[in-house]
Amino acid sequence: MQNGKKAAALCAGKDFMLSEAVMEMGDNHLSTSDDTPLRPGAFDMDNVEKVKKIEGLFRQLMETLGLDLTDDSLRGTPLRLARMYVTSFYGGKFGNAAVKEEFLRYAGMATVY
């Protein structure tokens, strides 16, 4: 229950609640489709709209950090990052079979302390 208490403390005052079952399991569980972090309406926007919106947000973030988006090393980065998030992370697509194999070797989340 230690982890469940920790998770409940993190949620205090937020707009969401953890179910009792999730609190009991704490951080020592594999998530299931019942515990999805997606909100209702998560698929209302198509991928083209998502990429366009996320590209603008990454552009804003990078400009806020003072990065020069006209520099050769950063040109096109907001669009690349947006496509990566929409098509790779949440689309289940992998560009390289070796990366897919390495990624699928793990059953849970890797945590770095």
Question: What attributes does this structure have?
Answer:
extended, 5 helices, 2 domains, 113 residues, mainly alpha, GTP Cyclohydrolase I, Chain A, domain 1, GTP-CH-I_N
How would you characterize this protein structure?
InterPro entries: GTP-CH-I_N. The protein is mainly alpha-helical and 113 residues long. Helix content is 49%, strand content 0%. It contains five helices and no strands. Helix 3 packs across helix 4. The longest helix is centred in the middle third of the chain and has 18 residues. The radius of gyration is 18 Å and the shape is extended. The mean pLDDT is 74.
CATH superfamily of the largest domain: GTP cyclohydrolase I, N-terminal domain
Number of helices: 5
Compute the average pLDDT. Answer: 74
Biggest sheet details: none
Head-to-tail CA distance between termini = 21 Å
Q: How big a fraction of the residues is strand?
A: under 5%
Number of strands: 0
Relative helix content: 40-55%
In short:
Helices cover 49% and strands 0% of the residues. It has 113 residues and is mainly α.
Helix-strand blueprint:
Blueprint: H1 2-11, H2 20-25, H3 47-64, H4 77-89, H5 97-104
